[in-house]
Amino acid sequence: MELMLAQPRGFCAGVDRAIEIVERAIEQFGRPIYVRHEIVHNKYVVDDLRGKGAVFIEDLADVPPGNTVVFSAHGVSQAVRQQAEELGLNVFDATCPLVTKVHFEVAKMRREGREIIMVGHHGHPEVEGTMGQSPQGMYLVENVADVSVLKVADPNRLAYVTQTTLSVDDAAEVTAALRARFPTILEPKKSDICYATQNRQDAVKFMAPQCDLVLIIGSPSSSNSNRLREVASRMSVEAHLIENASELDPKWLEGRKRIGISAGASAPELLVQELMQVLKTLGALSVRKLDGVEESVQFPLPVGLGGNEQRGSSISQESV
Ligand code: SF4
């Protein structure tokens, strides 16, 4: 068997930053540091931070007054921000700057008096956070069928935004349906699907046709990891999403010659390396790193955590 490694794979700049925020907060303020929701959707990362002193909660009411809380990379609604203020919590915001960019778009669209449609997955924390930027409410559509039955107040005063981690192909279909049904709908200036989602899906599209099995490392709750598995499956290649090497079923390898490997944006490289070691014990003889985009995006840390604020480029209101 030959192993193929997709490029890029694994951690994105938003995940790197979110983890660093929790680690620095623990260093600076001591344990425990409360984190609202899983900082990123990966079991290994969450367990590791828990071991270092992070306490994961869903409701801010569970944070003792005066303590420090970190908002997860997925972002939070205005109501959650306000609740944190009312409770007098010390907040560090690990919302990915590319999610914040979408929040700014929503605010701008509302100021223009538009109703806003969000394309995303019901119940995902990023969707809840983004929809919670508009106290007047927003419409949520998940697919083309939702678009066809959507009722709006004024079809000529509409705008849309999307979740950052959607399937690029699915999102293109849904937004095409929105444009067809509401020809004057305002679009985001630049796609809301983030660079990391786009690059990882492109890399799997390049890799999958060269493989007879694709393994994606990522947690079942991770949107972008699920999308990577779907991308490979849609190219008629058997694909599995696994948390780590322990979930590998040796039966999947029977008769396989080329195994493609990638990892979602919240999955550590360590888990990829462990999987490769296990595959080597099961007969993999070589590893080929595929060509792909080299990413160099970095985001600055929040003020107050000793980060170099000059690092990388931040997303500002003006950039939307
Ligand atoms: S996947 Fe995209 S939006 Fe999510 S944290 Fe990474 S860079 Fe940010």
Q: Tags for this entry?
A:
alpha/beta; Rossmann fold; 5-stranded parallel sheet; 4-stranded parallel sheet; 10 helices; flat; binds iron/sulfur cluster
Question: What features would you describe in this structure?
Answer:
Helix 4 runs parallel beside helix 5 and helix 8 packs parallel to helix 9. The chain folds into three domains: 105 residues, 4-hydroxy-3-methylbut-2-enyl diphosphate reductase, catalytic domain (Cobalt-precorrin-4 Transmethylase, domain 1); 83 residues, Rossmann fold; 96 residues, Cobalt-precorrin-4 Transmethylase, domain 1. With 320 residues, it is of the alpha/beta class. The strands form three sheets. Strands 10-9-11-1-12 form a five-stranded parallel β-sheet, sandwiched between helices. A four-stranded parallel β-sheet has the order 3-2-4-5. It is flat. Iron/sulfur cluster (SF4) binds next to helix 1, helix 4 and helix 8.
* CATH topology grouping of the largest domain: Cobalt-precorrin-4 Transmethylase, domain 1
Arithmetic mean pLDDT = 95
Q: Can you summarize the main beta sheet?
A: 5 strands, parallel
From the alpha carbons, calculate the radius of gyration and give it in angstroms.
21 Å
Give the number of helices. 10
Bound heterogens, unique:
iron/sulfur cluster
In whole angstroms, how far apart are the ends?
47 Å
**Tally of separate domains:** 3
Would you count the extended β strands for me?
Answer: 12
The assigned structural class equals: alpha/beta
Topology summary:
Blueprint: E1 2-5, H1 13-29, E2 33-36, H2 43-52, E3 54-57, E4 68-71, H3 78-86, E5 90-93, H4 97-111, E6 115-119, H5 125-131, E7 139-141, H6 144-149, E8 158-162, H7 168-181, H8 195-207, E9 213-217, H9 223-234, E10 239-242, E11 258-263, H10 269-281, E12 286-289
Parallel strand pairs: 1-11, 1-12, 2-3, 2-4, 4-5, 6-7, 6-8, 9-10, 9-11
Helix pairs in contact: 4-5, 8-9
